[in-house]
Amino acid sequence: MKDFFNSAAQQHHPLRVLKDFLDREQANEVAKKYDEMRFVGYVLDINYNTVTIITSDPYKVAVGGIPRNSLLIMTPAKQERIATPHFTLLRVLDAAPTPLSKETQQTYFELQKKSMPELDIFTQSELQWGALNTEVLGMFYPHPEKQDAVEFSGDMNNFVSAHKYRVYAPDAAILDLVINSLVSQDKRFKIGTLRLTECRLPLPDKPILQVPVYVSPRDFLASRTAMFGKTRLGKSNVVKLIAQSILDATAQHSNVGQLIFDINGEYANDNPQDGSKSLRSANPDRCVVYALTPKAATPSKPLKLNFYEQPDTAQNILASLINQDNRATSDYIRRFMSVELLPLEEIKKMNAGSEKTRTYRKVQVFWAILQKAGFQADEKRLIAIAPSGQPPSGFNPGFSQQLRSAAYSAAGIQTVPQPPRSLDELMREMEIMARFRRDHPSNPNLTTQSGNALFDPDDIALLEFLEPSPGRSGPAIIQPYRIYHHPQASDFVKDILKLLDDGRTVILDLGNAHPVLLEYFSDLLSKAVFSHQVDKFSNDKLGDKYIQLYFEEAHNLFPRQKEPKDIYSRFAKEGAKYHIGIVYSTQSPSTISGDLLAQTENFFVAHMSSQDEVNVLAKMNVAYESMKDDILRAKTPGYIRMLTRSHRFVVPIQALKFEPNTSQPSLL
């Protein structure tokens, strides 16, 4: 009666598959159907970390082979079974010596030396036995508090004598339990299939088991996820799968916004050449693209700056671009690059006086430089945000009438025009002032009433760049950077934060962008997102809202050799508290900040060819120690070694190819 009630209680328990499996094994053994058995062998030696098993060639053949990294299960032998079903999970590491290894090698040597054509049945029986070394991954057993649930521990609570255990190659049902039972059923998605080895050659009449592998979108929220491996091996494909899973899981709630820094344009744009679909085309209603260079086939908003309205940022970017392109070939260019401008909002808040006058005139000279370089402007919009009232204001730099008369007269213009009311007029007046200052440096009109020079060194640097000496390029140097400017560019940061709060996925198409612009947009939006989430946290408005950030070429943002920028360091250390998750990709773990690696919860590792790289990975996460050789050898695209918050051990998978709106996605 007790057995009856125990059996009834376990009827729907996940571990029922273990009982069914062992019952089948016993029935096959009684019926002598050895070819249908999953039995692998016996335990030769056991401790808390490793188990050495003995096996035989027929056993290996019957289960379809036992490649390295195979998953095996160890259960108590029949006579030692206890009422509570459980098993220990093992991973095959390599062949191990047996107590008779030397004698076996001596027999092989003698046989080969005598060139015997075949072995007698007794010798063959002796030679086909061998041993395998395995590591203990942990135990599966019924959850102590939850009915019909499984719990996993990364250790063993006890072990007895080696001869009291049997080892099996699990079937598809048990492998599904091992891989997927700890993954939440809520909104989970299939990321690929279990692939224990790169070789796909099956033994005769022994098909390779097809076991789906699932992950939970919750594993990635407020977590750090790493994508490691050489290029063209499927890292971006896995990122698309993760981003799509979050889109699917939040279709009704819209509580997760995603921001993707797309430096290659592959998430925003389809690639017909290799049949790759973009995330945007798969989700046109939920993805918004901001592009530096718009594509005809991809609807997008301009990801550009308004250089007139953001003079402080624009000046810094121009200086960086000039420096990166090695165009700072003269002192006057370097002096221009060293000038710092204040934001218009700060200037408007300053009290009237000489400091405000000097500060705003610098901006006006900068506007004149932009106008001369061909940067388009919306003058009505510019006037609306510019300081107004007493000159200098608007486009009027507020020079004294005496100075204007002297400067225009020196330029051969006897009739002094009205103060500038447009950018063209401002540009012409600043050009005249630049030439007058250069040609008549001792003119008393270039001195203030207090006896100071009217133009300080920064003014002179700007004026010399606007109207340089003959033979110099001046504003023509910055003409190539007009592609980063748009006169109607809005406050895209505010717009993007609103989209993220609404649960939209924003893709920044930065394909072919200058490295300076890449760094600028990454820094600007990362700081904005962090500040935005901190503000919601402080005001108790965070709730169930999350933001996911996706970075490629992460070694540029989280470098190992020096301290990462403050904002990225805070992502690594504090992001979870503010519901910020990051997914970062790079080819080399050794180039990534140790702090970030230590905090990373999820790993997706493709092929790496450097021993140093896999050593760094294994040092930061010991779960990869036994996978190092496999990572170095296997080069198949999409063959990934995965470790997530739901998976307590590394799971090798063949990732699905991102194929939206397809009922049966293919393997990559």
Automatic annotation (TrEMBL):
Pfam family, one: DUF87
Gene3D superfamilies: P-loop containing nucleotide triphosphate hydrolases
Protein name per UniProt: Helicase HerA central domain-containing protein
Protein's organism: Meiothermus hypogaeus
Sequence ranges assigned to domain Helicase HerA central in this UniProt record: 210-318
Source domain of life: Bacteria
